[in-house]
Amino acid sequence: MIPRNHAIAKAQAIVQYLTPAEVTMLSNEALTGRKGKRNALLITLLFESGLRISEALSLTPSHIQTFENAPILNIVGKGKKRRMVSIPERLADRLRAYAYERKLEPKDRFFPINRSRAWQVIHRAAERAGLNKKVYPHLLRHSDAIERLRQSGNPKALQLHLGHSSMVMTMRYLSTLSVEDSVRINSAVKFDD
Length: 193
Fold this sequence. Notes:
Layout: H1 4-12, H2 20-30, H3 36-49, H4 53-57, E1 64-67, E2 70-76, E3 82-86, H5 89-101, H6 115-129, H7 137-152, H8 155-162, H9 167-171, H10 179-187
Antiparallel strand pairs: 1-2, 2-3
Helix pairs in contact: 2-3, 2-6, 3-5, 3-7
């Protein structure tokens, strides 16, 4: 258990992240090479789902399901907790097409690599993209969290999406939002006349 004052200090720190444009650059650079399609899909998945690298590497076609007509990943996350993770329809389609092309069975892993190899793939793509920051798998999770918070303004929904047991962990992302983000989120609030 993290001491409360340490958790609060961590929650107030600015979280490093990649912009959607930087993630696109990263994904495009990952396309090169023999396993380029797999590598680019892994990067997109990490960014658009917010999965931890261990969750992404254990993902199989059977994890892709629907909830209220929207695609989700029904996974077992950290601490062996079941979690539904919302993903964009186009990502679900890409995953299904990849599984079909590769003739993956429902329980076959999309990414049969280890964490170290995933780290290398992402690091090399970042070098080729010319990104001047340390890029690693968990940075894509942070990037997803910040983008979702910018678009929704809903920390509770983000907490559930990321599978955080404590709101303090999720609150770290709030310190990264700008005044402009806040104004945009608040201007989208509608009141009945």
